[in-house]
Specification:
The chain is an alpha+beta fold. The chain is built from 2 helices and 8 strands, in the order βββαββββαβ. The protein has a single domain, classed as Alpha-Beta Plaits, CATH 3.30.70.120. It has a 4-stranded antiparallel beta sheet. Belongs to the UPF0166 family.
Length: 118
């Protein structure tokens, strides 16, 4: 993303913490793919409770054995780059056994500054 870019797109991918792509966790695969596409960055948020199209509520409770929780992968960059990236990962998301939801909305970037390398 250009440092002087003020308009961008936020891509949000809603999946489960246990969703897999081959033998890797899906959210990890998406983040590494975003890095390969030189996108501005990606962040994964783990929810404590939620449900999707299946209407099954998943929540974090210390007595539950399963760690199936809602996860959101969020990526912000220029619209063209986000669209190209989404078209690359879309076939994998469409083939998932379980559901997901993808949204995109315009955002205004007020500051995009690289950190100092150590």
């Amino acid at each position: 993303m250009k440092k002087d870019t003020s308009k961008a797109i936020r891509l949000r991918i809603y999946i489960s913490s246990t969703d897999k792509l081959k033998h890797s966790l899906l959210f990890e695969s998406i983040v590494y793919q975003a890095k390969r596409y030189n996108l501005a960055g990606a962040t994964v948020f783990k929810g404590i409770m939620g449900f999707g199209a299946s209407s099954i509520v998943h929540s974090y409770k210390f007595w539950e054995i399963s760690d199936k929780l809602p996860v959101t992968v969020e990526i912000i960059d220029e619209e063209k780059k986000i669209t190209q990236f989404f078209n690359t990962i879309k076939p994998y998301l469409e083939e998932m056994r379980y559901g997901c939801m993808i949204t995109a909305e315009p955002v205004n970037v007020w500051l995009y500054k690289e950190g100092k390398k150590r």
